[in-house]
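User: ok so my PI wants both of these folded by tonight, can you help

Assistant: No problem, let's get them done. Here's the first:
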Amino acid sequence: MTDDILVRDARVDDAQDLAPLLATLGYPADPTLVHDRYLRLLASDSTARILVGTCRGRVTGLATLHVTPMIHRPTSVGRITVLVVAPDAQGTGVGRRLVEAAERHFAALGLERVEVTSGVSRRPAYDFYRHLGFVDQGVRFAKPLPRD
């Protein structure tokens, strides 16, 4: 089935398809909100890229890419900040194709490292990342900031 998989840059009109994918990760959002976030993200971050994976013309996967400057590394770091595949398309190769496209994008920018994080509730994803050559390094800590 991997011959039917295409990876392309997301389009604004993909918002309707992206909303259910984000909900799969536990981030429900109305397609209108996704549309607005999409536009805001691309307008505010010239290094951001949003990719979709399609299978037989249907959007089945999403990856968002960012470049983060680092003072302690020789180059900036490429970060996959969202990677999700529709539950009925998992195991088809869509996720692998999205990661490969991200790696090519970051390498073309001259970056030497790609990172991805995954929540503790998403243990099945850990094996997927390890299978693709990612190694466990550290723990990410987060806390919400107070609103004014």
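One down. Here's the second:
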Amino acid sequence: MTAILGDTRGVPQMLTAGSWGSASSIPAAEAACEALREALDALGTNAPEGSSPAEILARADRRELSVNAATFAPGQSREALEEIDTGHVAPTGPVYPDFITYSYAAHFVEVRVEPTTRRIRVPRVVSMFDCGRVLSPRTARSQAVGGVVWGIGGALREAGEVDERYGGILNADIAEYLVPVNADIGSIEVGFIDEPDPMVNRSGVKGLGEVVLVGVAPAIANAVYHATGTRVRHLPIRIEDLI
């Protein structure tokens, strides 16, 4: 199986948003593998036990075997494929009438605020995630750590400065748009519950996109409040907010 991405000769690509990539594609890929296995079994009914797929295809006088498979979420029908095949978002579903399918995260943040300058540092973040079955531990950890770093940037560094006269962005470059660097990031520990959720889909997979990020800034704001007694309700939290 070969996945072709970023090539206009392939099929139209879906929008990358909503944390739906793995939860949508993995069940379909598993269904395709099962369909391929069944087709090979049908071709290799009389093949010697232990024959490889290549040997089965050779005995059947075929060079390749193609199968089609599709999976649907609750509330979706085959009509949705017509939109998906053109690269559009499915027009209906999913609809889960009796349960919800969200992923969950818990972020624990330690901050240190210098008493004279009020400079805020984040020496340690510990985050736990429930995203159903973890397909690739390395990729999931990278996603989680990256989300925490992004959350630190959003909480303490990043801000778009708008020209009130003309509406343009004044700091639309890396020189003046502040993002975290290595010196801004302390210890980041992430973990996963890693329990498949069979009610969501056949693979037990849920999303791990936005959930790694959205809770980090509120956790930092709460930690700053606990350290200083000052409740800041906007981002980024700056030194002048604590003076």
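Helices lie at 21-43, 53-59, 80-84, 137-156, 216-228. The chain has two domains: 21-84, 104-241. Good luck tonight!
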